[in-house]
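> example.struct
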């Protein structure tokens, strides 16, 4: 199985890609995923209008660590001129790739005709693709879905349009926009897209265990696989897949059998990076969900849920987690 791939002249160490996930794939998490072997990391979706108006919060989301390279900036919007302006600004920030969000089903994104809603009228897509591609020198990619409505595949048609307008690669989530994240995954349409275009295709959707990544790659013949939810609270998921590539057993962290060290070391590093990145108050508030992801399934982890949700203080948060770790695990 091919493990390296390229987007234009950018060669990746491997074909494992961290999916963009709003509220999760900020710079600290991306840095950690790169450390555990993700070959390419993508920001969460960033508003093109916010970038054009230099909105303070939007601008703060654009920071990334040098260790993240190669790193892709995902932008969303429906206006070709504003998407082009945002792409240029992203290039000026030092991003390696600009990615167009064409899959998000969230109502607040759909209302402006952005994200997955762009698939509702594909005749408008060439103008959007052209505007963004012409605005930058770095590669422009698209992340989309197999279609807009369930059982009405579009990805291969959209991918051909994208290729014709100079888009450098396409990632395809195997669920339709209207399906959101529920229901079956249409890996056949991803496979068909791979046969239709010459640009690299990245398959996404439904990888739950490390071996699923190999399965989707072999079923679709895609160049790369993009992983989302499976690595939330488990950024070492990438290392587990790489272990399989290397012919070893994945070191899946099963706490009934193994030490908790990797979990808590990674969690403490993650919290510390978030505090440096966002400041203590915001970091502790926004880390609540990710912390629950790290400890989900661990013995009696429900007992610390309320305490984590209530604390606003870094020292207290670390104390809660250390007490929990020393009570239930050998440290
Ligand atoms: C919490 C969450 C946030 C997401 N945010 C984005 C986003 O910002 N941009 C995007 O293109 N997709 C987003 N997605 C979709 C994922 O990138 C991915 O396509 C989807 O989760 C399917 O992959 P998976 O089955 O590996 O999780 C998000 C998904 C989740 C669960």
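> example.seq
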């Amino acid at each position: 199985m091919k493990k390296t791939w390229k987007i234009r002249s950018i060669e990746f160490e491997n074909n494992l890609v961290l999916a963009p996930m709003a509220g999760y794939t900020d710079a600290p998490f991306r840095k950690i995923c790169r450390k555990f072997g993700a070959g390419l990391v993508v920001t969460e979706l960033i508003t093109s209008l916010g970038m054009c108006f230099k909105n303070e919060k939007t601008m703060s989301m654009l920071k990334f660590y040098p260790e993240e390279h190669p790193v892709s900036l995902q932008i969303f919007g429906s206006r070709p001129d504003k998407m082009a302006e945002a792409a240029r600004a992203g290039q000026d920030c030092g991003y390696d790739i600009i990615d167009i969000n064409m899959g998000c089903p969230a109502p607040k994104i759909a209302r402006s005709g952005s994200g997955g809603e762009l698939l509702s009228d594909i005749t408008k897509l060439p103008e959007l693709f052209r505007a963004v591609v012409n605005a930058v020198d770095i590669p422009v990619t698209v992340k989309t879905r197999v279609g807009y409505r369930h059982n009405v595949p579009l990805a291969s048609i959209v991918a051909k349009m994208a290729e014709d307008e100079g888009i450098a690669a396409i990632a395809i989530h195997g669920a339709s926009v209207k399906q959101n994240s529920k229901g079956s995954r249409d890996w056949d349409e991803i496979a068909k897209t791979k046969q239709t275009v010459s640009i690299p295709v990245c398959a996404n959707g439904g990888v739950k265990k490390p071996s699923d990544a190999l399965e989707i790659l072999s079923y679709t013949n895609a160049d790369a696989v993009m992983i989302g939810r499976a690595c939330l609270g488990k950024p070492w998921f990438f290392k587990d897949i790489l272990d399989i590539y290397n012919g070893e057993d994945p070191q899946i962290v099963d706490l009934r059998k193994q030490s908790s060290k990797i979990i808590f070391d990674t969690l403490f590093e993650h919290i510390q990076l978030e505090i440096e990145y966002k400041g203590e108050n915001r970091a502790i508030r926004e880390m609540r969900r990710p912390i629950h992801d790290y400890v989900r399934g661990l013995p009696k982890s429900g007992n610390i849920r309320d305490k984590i949700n209530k604390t606003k203080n870094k020292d207290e948060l670390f104390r809660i987690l250390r007490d929990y770790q020393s009570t239930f695990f050998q440290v």
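> remarks
The pocket of flavin mononucleotide is lined by residues 19-24, 44-45, 74, 101, 103-104, 143, 173, 181, 204-207, 227-230 (CB under 6 Å).
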